[in-house]
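Fold this sequence, please.
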Amino acid sequence: MVAEQDQAFQEERLQYHLQIQANQIQKVLNHHGASSTITGGIASKRSFRFNLRSPINTGFERLLSLKEELKKALGVSGIRFSRQEGQLQLQVLRPFSPAVPLLDLMSRLDNIPLSTAILGFADDGTVVQHDFSVNATPNILISGEKDAGKTILLRSIAASLALANRQADIQLVAINPISTDSQRRDAQAELWRPLNYIPHMLTDVVSRQSEITELMLFLVREMNYRSEHLFNGPRIVIFIDQAATVMERGGRTVTEAIMRIAERGAVAGIHLVLGTRRPRLSHFSPHLLANLQSRHIGRGSQDSIWVDDEKMILKASSLLGEGDFLTHGLSRPVRFQAAYIDDYDLHMGLSKLYRRRPILLAQPVSNRIQMNSPFLSAKPEQQQFAFSDSLIAVS
């Protein structure tokens, strides 16, 4: 029965990816006035192949001139045109297949508890999960050098919470500071920007330091308001990539805000998920680390300041990077491969979210300061998703 469900899900996903690419290809062709039309498509193990109806003499050259733009629109590394028995064909290389696709893990779980995130697949065959309602581990710290997979894990945690919980139960905030390295900045943006279209986001991903400071102070005020009025919902999960950089640039104001939320936020239903390279004592004080008990160690994190167990330090030294993590803070160390969600799967998940999203006839009234997001002001039925630069965008 499970195998049949997996097969049905894989077929649904494949057809969805095929349709999305067909729509994108046709969109580019129409934009440039190319007299070509997609007449069918088929998926193989390594590529998608589309049949095109086009004037055979002029259509082929016209399509070749659009090759780079098509690659950009589809977010893929390679495409190829060919003629097969008088039929023009476009072959699109499929993106790499991650070791642990997030949607695959989620589809295999009969029931995902409320407020629980999916992190990955452990080497003992179990799914690694994190329940934010557990008081002993309300916050998460993820460390690792470059290419350890920190941002991938942060994004998967956020996506899994959105896909398995209602907005009434979970809301998300994401902070990704602007990097001085242009190549790293572009790579980080590619991973974070699609989260702007998750309906659970309180605001778009925040990157500028002035806005980060304002946001953290807002969240502290929200925590104080909830504590004063004795309620803790909906849960707010705050994702901070490059947390050490955020604290360094934000100074005492931001550092103290993070410290206060780490210490008192869980009671008010506000939680932290921090990503950093190597925690330094100048930013991650012993008091802050004491409130970040759920720790996931990536390649390059075997530091005695960060890990106080010699056996863990030895195990961490063998991590391979690219999503290979070791947990710290559980009853025993667990090594796992972080789940991954690509833009196509995220697009598929979002389409399902919006289909079941209710239309509110009356809006709630509150005297509290609200976070505003331009995206959330649009009605779901007015939004059309499209891929651009391998990202999900609204057109």
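The first strand starts at residue 37 and ends at 43. Confidence is low (pLDDT under 50) at residues 373-395.
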